[in-house]
Amino acid sequence: MPFRPEDQQDRPGYFFILSGPSGVGKNTLLGIVLQGLSGVYYMPSATTRPMRPGESQLNPYVFVSKDEFEEMIERGQFLEWKKIHTNDYYGTHLPSIRYAIENGYDIITDMDVLGCADAVAAFPEHICTIFIMPPSLDELSNRLYSRDADQRNIQKRLERVELEMKYQDKYDFVVVNDNLDESAQQLREIIQEVRTSKNFKGKREVPQ
User: Catalyzes what (predicted)?
Assistant: First the structure.
């Protein structure tokens, strides 16, 4: 990703990670927050899932074929990767993270709870973790049914919610996405607070 020299910090870069159940609104929140937040770069994950209406390359993912993804696995290009939900791959590009942290650039992405555990283990001094909570499980279920006609996919996502929710106490911050504008403002304030700290220390407990 192209980094601007004026965004370089006089400290190592911070890596902000958002996690939360599928359908909780992580990408929507990120889109709102990044519009009014300069100097923080969105790092899209790579995925093999099909592009949805309104999406494009790099927004919100780097869309690749399964052959391309598996080749990247063999080359050790991922910090973490998973095959989830509909047997599609998702992964986080390791060289991009290293470059950003080593050169003082702040980056942000969304990641599942197990991937986040891998990231914290790899970069414990440079990561800020934020868990996005739904206002209720009923509301989360309604959101999923409104965006996906395949009930099997929805059921797989709902079955994973229980696992994901167990990790919330391991995160540095928790944001309940009830009111979108208020949640986006809370998320923005968290990011700004951490960025102004040269020595941010979160809970630093690696999720197990």
Answer: GMP + ATP = GDP + ADP
